[in-house]
Design goal:
Shape of chain B: globular
Number of domains of chain A: 2
Strand content of chain A: 15-25%
CATH class of chain B: Mainly Alpha
Structural class of chain B: mainly alpha
Order of helices and strands of chain B: EHHHHEHHHHH
Distance between the termini of chain B: 17 Å
Number of strands of chain A: 14
Radius of gyration of chain B: 16 Å
Oligomer: heterodimer
CATH class of the largest domain in chain A: Alpha Beta
Largest sheet of chain B: 2 strands, antiparallel
CATH architecture of the largest domain in chain A: 3-Layer(aba) Sandwich
Structural class of chain A: alpha/beta
Largest interface: A-B, 20 and 18 residues
Largest sheet of chain A: 6 strands, mixed
Order of helices and strands of chain A: HEEEEHEHEHHEEEHEHEEHEE
CATH superfamily of the largest domain in chain A: Dihydroxyacetone kinase, domain 1
CATH topology of chain B: Serine Threonine Protein Phosphatase 5, Tetratricopeptide repeat
Number of helices of chain A: 8
């Protein structure tokens, strides 16, 4: 393992120290262990609060989407390990501006358990709470058991669109409904070329053999759809898009947004090589790409690889996607 | 009467000491089929519960159980800590308005805990999880004759459950990924439960 470390067990806390040093006017750190990050101006009175949380190792997911027009607070776990119930609850209290709180997070068993427990505590304190779990990874379960799928880069669309809706002072039911709408239509798939090392452990928790790729691998190394020899960028891009469009019916004139996301180590150059093919395939189908997001949006430490997310748009989703938003990690003007 | 605030407070002290002492063994057991943090999780839960002792002086039974639930919620993000937090909260709700509970109440309380944990964690009876000995003890308490030694009864039900499931595969949680490997091994959560029963009854 070759990483920039002082104390591997303090990896997450030292990262949070650095983020707060860099953006002292924007973030406030809460919770009895400092594992909650919230907007400094939270709670925003009269606005639905949106909270998320999950394991570290995926920046900008999760805490990087705490921002104006985005999320209000985030509970931060260790690398690839869920946040504590108490931190989920502290995030909800920080976000509660009196209009209710939406828990919006990835569909992982441990995170669900902890957010549900926090919801039970919050309910007894009289906070109105709803929950939406993002489950966009098509490789993690077949369409007929879609509710079992994991949440990956599709989280970004859910955060952005629900965040914009909350910014308009929509009700908790309306913000929840638009987040559910995103989850219903958004699809992602990832491809891993090399694994990553969990700093607390010091070794890669999974392997991707030299010269091979794992198509559909999850962001914690969960097994994918197939393993095999490396292919050309165009072939990989085509299979990613084809697998997503197998579940998204498109017609000429439709509009979609896309995330071509680096899982950590893959450079922007290669993301644009992938996007070149994806854009051409969409053009051939008469489908118009809107605001493509190309870069590091949801990573897995230093994993080499990429994911593709497709969000079919309607006028409401497009307008919320384009609404202004700001966080130190991402902004939409 | 078998349980009131004072007896619970004394039992919790024994429970905490036992959880801390058992941490290395439970970590090792969990490391064979999971991420090896069960002992550390329970050790942290116990330390957090102990830290609340000075605030428990005037608590009644439900308040004391809720305090334990909150203490476990601060322990870690690990699922067993969350399940323990959920168990204490369910117990607290089950005792609402009561200063004491008897053997039948305790049996019913454990059945409520069993269904709360099944809902929270998604496991079912027979999956070789902590739900199985909870169910066995609840059933034994509910059907015990008056004057029976409840600690011996609970311990016996737990031991029989461990024996029954030892050569079956785990069907839930992270251990499900190691189904074949889990045959012949005791479920670490069940072993932790046995240690809890032993400590509470002493």
């Amino acid at each position: 393992m070759k990483k920039f470390l002082n104390n591997r067990n303090a990896y997450v806390d030292e990262m949070l120290d650095g983020i707060c040093e860099a953006h002292p006017d924007f973030y406030i750190r809460l919770g009895d262990s400092g594992r909650v990050l919230a907007r400094k101006d939270s709670p925003v009175k009269g606005k639905v609060g949106i909270v998320t949380g999950g394991g570290s190792g995926h920046l900008p997911v999760f805490l990087g989407y705490v921002g104006r027009g985005l999320l209000d607070a985030c509970a931060v776990g260790n690398v690839f390990a869920g946040p504590r119930v108490d931190d989920c609850l502290a995030a909800m209290n920080a976000a509660n501006g009196g209009a209710g709180v939406l828990q919006l997070y990835g569909n992982y068993g441990g995170d669900k358990m902890n957010f549900d427990m926090a919801k039970e505590f919050a309910g007894s304190d009289g906070i109105e709470v709803s929950s939406v779990r993002v489950s966009d990874d098509v490789a993690s379960a077949p369409p007929e058991t879609r509710e079992k799928r994991r949440g990956v880069a599709g989280l970004i669309y859910a955060y952005k669109i629900a965040g914009a809706k909350a910014e308009q002072r929509a009700s908790l039911a309306e913000v929840t409904a638009v987040a559910e709408k995103v989850v219903k239509v958004c699809r992602s798939i990832g491809v891993a070329l090399s694994p990553c090392v969990v700093p607390e452990v010091g070794v890669a928790p999974f392997e991707v053999a030299e010269g091979t790729i794992e198509f559909g691998m999850g962001i914690h190394g969960e097994p994918g759809i197939w393993k095999g020899a490396m292919k050309s960028a165009d072939d990989v891009a085509a299979e990613m898009l084809d697998r997503l469009l197998a579940e998204i019916s498109t017609s000429r004139g439709d509009r979609v947004s896309l995330i071509v996301n680096s899982l950590g180590a893959t450079p922007l150059e290669e993301l644009y090589i992938l996007y070149r093919k994806i854009a051409r395939m969409l053009r051939d189908k008469g489908v118009h790409p809107v605001m493509p997001l190309i870069g590091r949006f949801a990573t897995s430490m230093e994993m080499t690889g990429a994911s593709l997310t497709v969000l079919p748009l309607d006028p409401e989703l497009e307008s919320l996607l384009k609404a202004p938003a700001y966080s130190p990690f991402w902004s939409v003007q | 009467m078998i349980l009131d605030a004072a007896t619970l407070r004394a039992a919790l002290a024994r429970w905490c000491a036992r959880m801390k002492a058992s941490a290395p063994e439970l970590n090792r057991l969990d490391g064979q089929i999971g991420d090896g943090d069960l002992g550390a999780t329970l050790e942290k839960c116990a330390a957090n519960v102990e830290a609340t002792f000075p605030h428990m002086q005037n608590d009644d039974l439900p308040q004391m159980l809720k305090r334990c639930s909150m203490a476990c919620a601060k322990a870690s993000g690990s699922s067993f800590g969350t399940l323990l937090s959920s168990a204490f909260l369910t117990a607290s709700k089950s005792c609402a308005g009561r200063q004491t509970i008897d053997r039948h109440d305790l049996g019913r309380l454990l059945l409520e805990v069993e269904s709360a944990l099944a809902a929270r964690g998604g496991a079912s009876l027979g999956d070789k999880t902590v739900l199985d000995p909870i169910h066995a003890v609840a059933t034994a308490l509910c059907s015990a004759s008056d004057g029976a030694d409840l600690t011996a009864l609970a311990l016996d039900a737990t031991t029989q459950t461990l024996d029954h499931f030892r050569n079956k595969p785990n069907q839930a949680g992270r251990a499900r990924a190691f189904q074949a490997k889990s045959v012949g091994l005791d479920d670490p959560g069940m072993v932790a439960f046995k240690k809890m029963v032993e400590s509470l009854g002493t």
